[in-house]
Amino acid sequence: MALINIQQIINEGLCIGCGLCASIFPEKVSIGLSIGGLRPIEKVPLIDEEFEYLCRVCPGVVHSGMPKKNLSEDVYIDPVWGPIERICAAHASNDSVRYKSATGGVLTALAGYLVESNRVDAILHVGSSGLKPYFGHSTISYTLSEVNENCSSIYASTSPLDKIIKVLDEGIRVALVAKPCDISTMRLLAKKDPRVDKYIPLMLSPFCGGFFPPFAMSNFLKSENVTEEEVESVSYRGNGCPGPTSIKLDNGSRIEKSYLDFWGKDSSQWHMPWRCRICPDGTGEGADISTGDTWPECTPTEEMISNDLGTNTVIARTSKGAELLQLAEESGYLDIDYECISSDMDKLQPHLAKKKIKALARFDGMRSCGQAGLSTVDLRSDLLSQTTSYDEFIKESKGTAARIKEGKHLDGYKIK
Q: How far apart are the C-alpha atoms of 28 and 48, rounded to whole Å?
């Protein structure tokens, strides 16, 4: 089925609320609050040419890896983990940055180096709060203190790309730190708008397994006998690795839960939007550098929570990324702990590997229900799909279709 408007992308559960459409077409599209979080609202319908343009870059339509023109000739491309110039474990040299950040502070340290060395004018990334106190918002940080203030991960609805056209129009040279799906969008936009490569010379991304949808936070607050109106702010991770989830209330008190108490002991327990569940790349293949946790099976033990100072797995995917990694280390912003190999990732992030391998089967299930589904570019999805048997492919496709028939793709679907 061909897509006809933005609302159809939302209805199929594929909108992630990135904000790009509102940034490109501000007179016609705005970002507002819906049951699924931040979503676009068409104030005036896009004409066919505008919607066709949007569909070439929207992460609810297509997900891209790294364009070949951005890669060196001899780069190693792992079938699952993508292009790799260098893979290692590292952490921020600054102890306070390392402690405050979600894991080891690598992305914050790299961002700090970039602004302090004047290699960019600013960092476009996200900070806490927004339309709801547990959401996030896009922000442009010009100084090291601003970068550090906005460190740590926001596991909630956020529109990191709603300022993109402002950046391009004003010629602000930034490094973008955003989710893999947001980075994908910018790689696709760069094919349409040459200003992207000019003013966004570096793109950095955390590995991403998904984020907490509004209904899940609402259910959690109810379990604590707290109303949403009482919440002042939320810190999902940080102040340790991974640190507690800390909810500050307007009376000054806090609710704090350990990582395992809040998120559960394995990724199957995570609540997340449909688009995150069927994501073909949570590893940030489109980023110059992507980073992740270093816990086996992506889940810390109680001992790790108590003793882990925080270390990131770091993949430099382009020569620019590898150069940034080296310069940040030489300049004292980053400490390299040890070198890694791609197969290490199989042990650390198995759920992201499974999503990649199953992506085409899931998209097949979506299309069997009359949906448009997602397409992929530069992600080797067809090659990965061939590593599964025919029976496994059909089982995954039918399972996806069954979930859609139950309405699990809808923003309004709530797990009891």
A: 13
